[in-house]
Amino acid sequence: MSDHDALPLDRRRFLGTVSASAALAASTSATGNADTPRPAAADPRPPVTNPRATSGDLRHSPRWDELFTLTVGNSNGDLNGTDQRVVQAAVDTVARMGGGTVRLLPGTFRMRNAVYLCSSVRLVGSGADTVLVKEPSATTKLSADSDWYDQEITLADASGFRVGDGICLRAKNPHHGGATVIKRTLVARSGNRFKLDKALRENLWATGNPTASTLFPMLSGEFVTNVVIENLMLDGNKANNEELDGNYAGCIFLQDCADVSVRKVIARDYRGDGISWQICHDVTVEECDSRNHTGLGLHPGSGSQRPVIRGNTIVGCHIGLFFCWGVRYGLAEGNTIEDTKTAGISVGHRDTDNLIRGNTVRRSGQAGILFRPERGQGFTGDRNTVEGNTVVDSGGVDAAAVDVQGTTAGLVFRKNELKENRGPARRVGFRLGKDTKNITLDGNSVDGFAVTVDDRSK
């Protein structure tokens, strides 16, 4: 996607598009098997060869020679500053103009809140010379109850909190005992009382030990489309921050978005995930460097369709590439994944019909490639193709380079190279669990293991 392709799309239109897609899916499932690809019908309409800018036309637009661009720097841009506020001002201004580019000049920007992305805006840095750094986090208890309809909280110790800060509110839910997690922004204060940008919509009572922390994604997108993030560095400053997991945050966190490209981004040292996208479709992440996060390096999250994950480097994370729930029709290609604490690549809950090709996985703590057991038949990551990957030195003395668990079915492993340089011990190349079925092994090379294939399904 380039400047020429940027088109405005507000939240209402985005939701309308999603609703239309859902209706189409329902129609498909009512008339046949939705899992069976159908050939595209030929379109009898004349092709669009000379489009005009027409109100509400989100599919075709002229390729303009110039779109609106703002530069942002510490001292020599169109807008100048040293924290997230100047970046946010530029994003909002460009969005109001119908889309374009925010170009971040070399400099360092300190983050006390997320930069909230807008549709049809490109956020482009100057490579490793553009650095966004998360400020140290502060945490305190809430000193008064707040009900679900309230739009304010009272902090026990407000010394680390300012108006404008992004915060995460966490508590034990008083009704079902599960976790409550709420992300908000502080917009006004009187002493230790702070107004929030939105109502709580959950009860935060003293019985649930509620806390507030200055934790947030560094770049955040919700219900946005046609977005590019490119050529910048994000430093999560994990030594001075508490944990916030990848279902809520990361160096980049996207929720309910579509048509997003993340290219040549360096994401490092977040106490959580590197890049996480949840229920986001047609997301491309390529040539990024995601390293030393306490969570997941790249996290294509629940329900995300057709991700393209290509040419990235992932180092030193808990898991390298984690397919969450229901990630389908995706491509993971040419990625290098090293020194993860557990799995290099992990696939599980209804992650089906993906192609995992040409990746290199080295020195994973437990398994190079893992297919998780999940809850049983119908829940596992079936019908995936794994081909041309290289897996080197995975796990401990009795680990498997490729570990297929649970009732996982219909996988194809073709022309992969599994290597073990530390001695065979009790190590296994392919381990197929007793309830797996229809696993195809075709032309793979397995070298240095005590057992080439441990097939327990026979």
Just give the CATH class of the largest domain.
Mainly Beta
The number of strands is 41
Number of helices: 2
How far is it from the N-terminal to the C-terminal residue, by CA?
49 Å
What's the main sheet like?
A: 13 strands, parallel
Strand content: 35-45%
* Overall number of structural domains: 2
Mean pLDDT: 92
Judged by helices, strands and strand pairing, the structural class is mainly beta
Radius of gyration: 24 Å
> Can you give the helix content as a percent range?
under 10%
CATH fold node name of the largest domain: Pectate Lyase C-like
Low-confidence stretches: 1-34
Please state the oligomeric state of the protein chains shown: single chain
Shape label? globular
Strand order across the largest sheet: 2-1-3-6-15-18-21-24-27-30-33-36-39
What is the correct CATH architecture of the largest domain? Answer: 3 Solenoid
CATH H-level homologous superfamily name of the largest domain: Single-stranded right-handed beta-helix, Pectin lyase-like
Give the SSE map.
Layout: H1 11-31, E1 68-73, E2 79-80, H2 84-96, E3 100-104, E4 107-111, E5 115-116, E6 121-124, E7 130-134, E8 139-141, E9 152-154, E10 166-172, E11 179-190, E12 193-196, E13 211-213, E14 219-222, E15 225-230, E16 233-235, E17 252-255, E18 258-263, E19 266-268, E20 275-278, E21 281-286, E22 289-291, E23 296-300, E24 308-310, E25 313-315, E26 319-322, E27 331-333, E28 336-338, E29 343-347, E30 355-357, E31 360-362, E32 367-371, E33 385-387, E34 390-392, E35 400-404, E36 412-414, E37 417-419, E38 428-432, E39 440-442, E40 445-447, E41 451-455
Parallel strand pairs: 1-2, 1-3, 3-6, 4-7, 5-14, 6-15, 7-16, 14-17, 15-18, 16-19, 17-20, 18-21, 19-22, 20-23, 21-24, 22-25, 23-26, 24-27, 25-28, 26-29, 27-30, 28-31, 29-32, 30-33, 31-34, 32-35, 33-36, 34-37, 35-38, 36-39, 37-40, 38-41
Antiparallel strand pairs: 8-13, 9-12, 10-11, 10-13, 11-12
